[in-house]
Amino acid sequence: MPNGTRFTHGFNMGANSSAARQATYDSAAYACKAIGSNLLFWEYGNEPDLFHASGYRPGPAEWSEIDYVEEWLNGTSNIENVVKEACPQLAKTKFMAPSFAGVAANDFFTLDPVKAFEDNLDADDSIGIISSHNYMGVSTAAGITLQGTLMNHTNVVAKAAEQLNVSANIAALGTKAPKVPFILGEHNSLARQGRPGLSNTFGAALWGVDWNLYLASQNISRSHMHQGTNYR
Question: N or C: which end of the chain has fewer CB within 10 A?
C-alpha cells in the first residue's frame, strides 16, 4: 500500500463465548502494533442487525438495541484498555459504528440505528464516524434487473434518501448523537456476491458513477465500495 494509507480495523463481535470475546480483546494488541500510526478507526461488529440470521444472537425479543448497546460499550471499553496498555500512543482511537446492514428494524434487520444512538451508543464519546451499509438489492431476490434496479436514477435517489433519513434522525437526537460525519462504510450494487451478467456489466459501472456522485452531492463525505470477487 502507498505510504500514509490509513486503515480501519474490524473486531469480531459475532462470536459470543467468553473465550471468543477474550480472544477478540487480546487481538487488539496485535492489531495496534501491526498498524501503528496508520490506524484511522476501529470497528467493533459488522452488521450486528443480521447476527440473528447467522445464529450469533437470538431475535429482537431477546437481543434488542439496549442489549446491543450494552454489549458494544463493554466490548469497546475492553478493546480500549488493551490498546492503552499495548500501544499507549493509540489510546482513545475512535470507533466507526454502528455499521448496520439496514436502515430500520423489520422482520429481517433486527436493530434500528437511530434507536441504538437513542439508547446511548456513544455514551463513552468513542464514535469518530457514523457508518451505515447499503446495497441496491440482493442478488438472489426476485425482480432484480439492470434497468429497474441499477440503471434507474429514481431508484438511486430513493435508496440514498433512506440513508439520509437515518443521518438526519440521528443528528436530531441532540447530545446523544456524536457530531461526526455520516458515511456509507460498506456498499455496492447487489448483496451476496452480486449476480454474474448483471453486477459485472457496463450498466452496473454506470450505476457506480451515478450512485457515488449522487452521494457526494448530498454531503455523504465518504463511501466505501465493498470489493471481492471479480463480478462485484
Answer: N
CA torsion 30-222-208-197 (nearest 10°) is: 30
Q: Which cell numbers in the block locate residue 123?
A: 455514551
How far apart (Å, rounded) are the C-alpha atoms in residues 60 and 82?
Answer: 31
Please pick, among 43, 65, 71, 80, the residue that the annotation labels catalytic.
65
User: Is pLDDT at 231 greater than 60 in this prediction?
Assistant: no
Residue 62 falls in the annotated catalytic set: no
Q: Rounded to 5 degrees, what are φ and ψ at 128?
A: -100, -15
In the chain, how many domains are there?
A: 1
Q: Is residue 145 part of a domain?
A: no
φ, ψ for residue 139, nearest 5 deg: -60, -30
Residue 80 lies in a domain: yes
- CATH number for the domain that contains residue 182: 3.20.20.80
Residue 215 lies in a domain: no
pTM of the model: 0.94
CB 31 within 8 A of CB 9: yes
Residues spanned by the domain of 130? 7-139+163-193+220-225
Query: Distance (Å, rounded) from C-alpha 186 to C-alpha 17?
Result: 27
Looking at 43, 71, 80, 186, which residue is catalytic? 186
Q: Which of these, 123, 156, 226, lies nearest to 184 by C-alpha position?
A: 226
Distance CA 170, CA 155 (A): 23
Sign of the four-CA dihedral 117, 122, 128, 133: negative
Active-site residue flag, 85: no
